# Entry
Amino acid sequence: MKKIVIGSDHAAIEMKSAAIDYLRKLGREVIDVGATGGERVDYPDYAAKVCEAIMQDSEASGALICGTGIGMSIAANKFNGIRAALCHDAYAASMARAHNDANVLCLGSRSIGLGAMESIIDAWLKVDFEGGRHCLRLEKIAKLETK
Ligand code: RB5
# Structure
C-alpha cells in the first residue's frame, strides 16, 4: 500500500490537503485527483476517479473524503473489487484492514478533526489483512456484486 490515490469534494479540500501532507511526510506516494477549488462538486465523480485508478493498479489504495464520508463510501462501494470503509477512529481503521481488507479509506471532514485523521491514517497504514477465515467472507462479498 505504498501508493495512495486521494480525492475529496468541496467539503473536504482542507482535510485532503492535510492528509496529503501527512501521507507524504510518512513517505507515501500520493496522487491527488481533486477536487481543487472551493466550488461545489459532486462527490460520486471523485469516488469514481479514485476507484477507477486503484482498480488499474494493484499496488495502490484509495482515500476519499467528503463532509461525512458517507456519500463517498456509498459511491465507492458500487465499484467491483472496491471495499471502502468509513472510519471515525483508529480502531475502525485497523479492523477495516485486518478483517475486511478494505482498499479505500473514507473520512468525514465535518465529523473528525485533524488529530483523529492522523491516528486513523496511522492505523490504516500499519495494519495488514489477516487473511484466514476472513478470505471466505470477502469472497462472499465479491459474489454479492453480481446480484
Ligand atoms: C456536501 O455538502 C456533502 O453532502 C458531502 O460532502 C458529503 O457529506 C456527502 O455524503
